[in-house]
Amino acid sequence: MILIVDDIRANIIALKKILEIQGFEVDTAESGEEALKKILKKNYSLIIMDVQMPGMDGFEAVETLAGSNRTKDIPVIFLSAVNKEKKFISKGYASGGVDYITKPVDPDLLILKVKTFLKLYDQQNELKNIRDLLSKEIEIRKEAQENLELKVTERTQELLVKNEELEFRNHELQQFAWVVSHDLKEPLRKIEIFVKMIQERYLKDDDTARDYVQRTIRSAQRMARLITDLLDYSRLSSTVVPVKTDLNEIFNEVLSDFDYVIEQKKAVITIQPMPMVTGVSSQLRQLFQNLVGNSLKFAKVGIAPVIEATVEIIEEKNFESKISQSGKFCRIVVKDNGIGFSEIYLDKIFKIFQSLNDRNSYEGTGIGLAIANKIIERHNGLITAKSSPDNGASFIIVLPL
Amino acid sequence: MRTILFVDDDQDDQLLFQEALSEADSTAVYLSATDGVDLFEKLNTGKTATPDLIFMDINMPKMNGIESLKELKRSERFKSIPVIMYSTSSSKEHQKICLESGAIGYVEKPNDFDQICARIKSILHNGLLFRQNDVPL
User: Fold this and answer.
1) Closest Cβ–Cβ partner in A182, A192, A200 for B111
2) What is the CATH number of the domain that holds A247?
3) What are the Histidine kinase domain coordinates in residue numbering (chain A) (predicted)?
4) What is the predicted pLDDT for the residue at A383?
5) Which residues of B touch A193 (CB under 8 A)?
6) Do A182 and B89 touch (CB under 8 A)?
7) CB contacts < 8 Å between A and B, how many?
8) Interface pTM (ipTM) of the complex?
9) Were A314 and a residue from A174, A222, A262, A321 both cysteine, which residue would form a disulfide, CB within 3.0 to 4.6 Å?
């Protein structure tokens, strides 16, 4: 709706007619004061304002409008018959008018101007609405983001607490395993000592009794070894930092540990030059100790063990991977000529407490390969075996360099 | 005649040690305490003569071997008594702590009576047993 403000009623009527013919809705006011009252109550999209009026003149009225947020954006066209000089026109624009027209008015031009300003006003409003909408949207997103960040922080905190708790429990569990195994070994040590004393002091002449006592001692020793192995297995859970490790040194140490057995069984062991790998040397040593130890342990009766460790640098973490000098992995094969085993047991041998062989002819607790498997897991590697009964066994390992 | 004080809560180990000691040195006097608290009670009240050497277990109730060792070394009266720690623990960490806390030796409890005798004999006969005024440590 357009508001026409003029103190001369004839002017109003003429202007109103022109606009109404064009289909505009028109309201009128006959003084600055009346105009302000109306503008307070109603929304106008354009004001055509006479400059010279008794009481509040057009400039004053528009300055008042500029002071209110609701009305400051309504476009005002000043219309004047008397004040045609430049200073009045300047004042009109300065007070907030969008145009300053002098009489006589060309109706066609006036209509065009009115249409243009109305359009501008609409567009401005539209932009304002969009801006409001956008800032509201931004507000909403900001809030969502803040909520999300809060949630993430909360979750992270929760996870940290859980993690700490788990670490604590893990530590506690290891402590527990240590204490339990220590306390379990203590009575075994006593059994061993006292039974040995009985054997030496009182059973010199009774072979059967000596044999029974010998079996008792062996059982106690076997149980002690079992507990030690279990303890080793549980210790593998603790975290250690991997470093560059020379596998040649590891193999040398392992072979010197087996010095006595190798000599006794007349074993022939050949180790190819090995690469450096990133790992925990004590664990890698245990891994190869278990593998070489197995090969020595499961030799055919009466046949000297022949054990071979070979290595290839390979492209990817895969048993079948292609050889590549620039590869990031190595494939190590520990091969023997022992009693072997049927591959149907392959998934069993790496699990804890799965000894395939008859205890009387072969020593061992069945934990060795489970330990090997866990060490390989902790080194991000792979382990498997190839074998058949009576045809020896090959243990294949893939380790990152 | 030497006085050896054995501190261990395990009665089997006490029995074994006592027998092994008399076999290693038939003139040696055997004294015992069951833990650190008992040890200091006996030493402080004079119920037990100040020994020439203490063998002490680590894992004991009330006051363990390492605490007792440190306490002995803090005491003006008893710090000159040589102490050998005697434990089933094969932990390198334990051994290090014991030696750093003032023990003159660390013996892992053997699984064999003859080994216990041999250990004690070797310690008693090969000069590991110093009295405060004999040889400076």
Assistant:
1) A192
2) 3.30.565.10
3) 179-401
4) 93
5) 16, 111-113
6) yes
7) 21
8) 0.76
9) A321
